[in-house]
Amino acid sequence: MYLMKKIPKYTLPLDFYDFLILQVVKAAQGKVPVFLDGGVRRGTDVFKALALGASGVFIGRPVVFALAVDGEAGVRKVLQMLHDELELTMALSGCRSLKEITRNHVVADWDHPRVLPRL
Fold it and tell me: pLDDT for 78-103, tens place per residue?
């Protein structure tokens, strides 16, 4: 299936497009992979998509812009930046591998209230 389209320590906020991803993943029922295409600018965007059940993401505009500015080196740099941001987000969320990223790592307005520990 094909979809268009500051980190608090424990959760990332969701918006309406994330709600749509969640609904498509639910409708797919694991029968087909769901990929997010569009709007991916940061490693946190990748993390949220994976947490919502997407199989992966497509990166377009950042790669095209990097290619225009600095050729292959620019593309390598932007992909490394996305990778580093995803790793940092995973570390701050307590995830050591992609398989450990779950829906519990993101929170939405429509979720039941959760009590966070006092810091």
Answer: 999 999 999 999 999 999 999 999 98
Torsion of CA 103, 50, 35, 113, to 10 degrees: 30
Q: Estimate the share of the chain in helix, then strand, then coil, as percent rounded to the nearest 5.
A: 50, 10, 40
Residue 11 CA, chain-centre distance (Å), reads 12
* Verdict on whether the full-model pTM lies above 0.85: no
- Which residues are paired to 13 by β-bridges? 107
Tell me, what's the pLDDT at 14? 52
* DSSP track, 35-90: EEES---SHHHHHHHHHTT-SEEE--HHHHHHHHHHHHHHHHHHHHHHHHHHHHHH
Give SS3 for 100: helix
